């Protein structure tokens, strides 16, 4: 988006690991701090929630979190959702510490300050959107701006990046454009290309880190079995 290059715009994973290192006592000469700043988090998931909580702990002036999708219902509709992950409003302890949450909002551009702040982000322009039949459209005349000294990008991903490794390997993809690799029967986690295995988000799509850890361990066992004929690694 316009303004992405401005100072003060970071990926969430540039920000959050620094806090872990600081908690461990590591020296961080270029640490990103939210103290005394207006923070905007783009993305309504768990990673965005972590940015909200860390910003609050730093002493941010304000924390705003935007989500592209509509606000979920307070209670799930079990008949509609089962057996899939229940769709309902989730509020984390980070949100409870203080946060303005806004739903069905798309970011249009990031706005620079003036004078000495000309290279720094100072505001964010957004627009409200509506969803019909799975399609998103902007609501005319709904544009608005919020103050933003720090902007954290905490959006989920749709599928693995194709350019580079995946294109060169020419592995088969599934209907969701993830790398196709079955977890059933012999040769678990093997792709359509010999000697190439896939696990975690690359295979199953966006998910929790515990799934990535589990699949990584299982995949390691399958690779070991492929190379050695058997394995003593845990599954």
Short summary of the structure?
With 235 residues, this protein is α/β, with parallel strands linked by helices.
Would you give an account of this structure?
The protein has 235 residues and is an alpha/beta fold. Helices cover 27% and strands 21% of the residues. It has two domains: 145 residues, FAD/NAD(P)-binding domain (3-Layer(bba) Sandwich), CATH 3.50.50.60; 64 residues, no CATH class. A hairpin with an 8-residue loop joins strand 5 and strand 6. Helix 1 packs across helix 2. It is globular. The model has no long low-confidence stretch (mean pLDDT 91).
List keywords for this structure.
5-stranded parallel beta sheet; FAD/NAD(P)-binding domain; 4-stranded antiparallel beta sheet; 27% helix; alpha/beta; single chain; 2 domains; 235 residues; globular
